[in-house]
User: Fold this.
Amino acid sequence: MKRLFAGLSDQGLVRKANQDSYRIDEPEGRFFIVADGMGGHAGGEEASRIAAETIREFLEENWQAQLLPHDLLQKSLLKANQAIIQNQKDFPARADMGTTVVVVVFPEYGQPWCAHIGDSRLYRWREAQLDQITEDHTWISQAVKSGLLTTDQARRHPWRHVLAQCLGREELEEIGIQPLDVKAGDQLLLCSDGLTEELADEQIASFFQPNEPCETVANTLVEAAKEEGGQDNITVVLVALDGEEEDNASWDAPAIDEDPTGELGTE
Assistant:
């Protein structure tokens, strides 16, 4: 299945620096990464950069290794976590830095997989419907899931930015890793919360159209988030699955062992 893609990161209208990072495997399009740093001006920038670059390097170096997609993703994020922790030790002023991350890989054979930590998200747009694939690692997300808050209440809650998980912590307990159900015509959106803080899912969905160039959608989403306030850095990566090469190509996510490695949980 042919993949078309584009990425864009914007400082927004309020922040003095861009603490987001993203990486796209060009021209092959084997993997896509978005990271959103925190921990002060220098710390946040460095944390997201370390995460994105470490994951990119690990995936490139181990792409041909005999690793299952789950293990490839898990090892890449664990290595990024340790790289950030080492940088914290080398530069004590960055001791509180951390980053969210969302990664999608397209193995040579079989279905794509996703991994994430924190509240950077993966969405799938299919036939005019937008679905959030990842589940935020936040208290707010758990409150909505348990029925304590509605989605609208969560969007305005003062604790909505409090993370339960991020890279850059010794106590890292869980990486969300899952296979993806995709088919020709689908579009995937990886994004930082600078987009989802300003735009509700219904608004985001309205900017997708069949056969719309990824560059156009990325630009439109970023500009729309800025028009709504642009309070945070905004990063989006779009991946469109073109059916020209395999008109009937699709991958359905199978039931999987929730923890095939015994090391970390999955979602």
About this structure: The chain has a mean pLDDT of 88. The chain has seven helices and twelve strands. The longest strand covers residues 2-10. The longest helix spans residues 41-62.
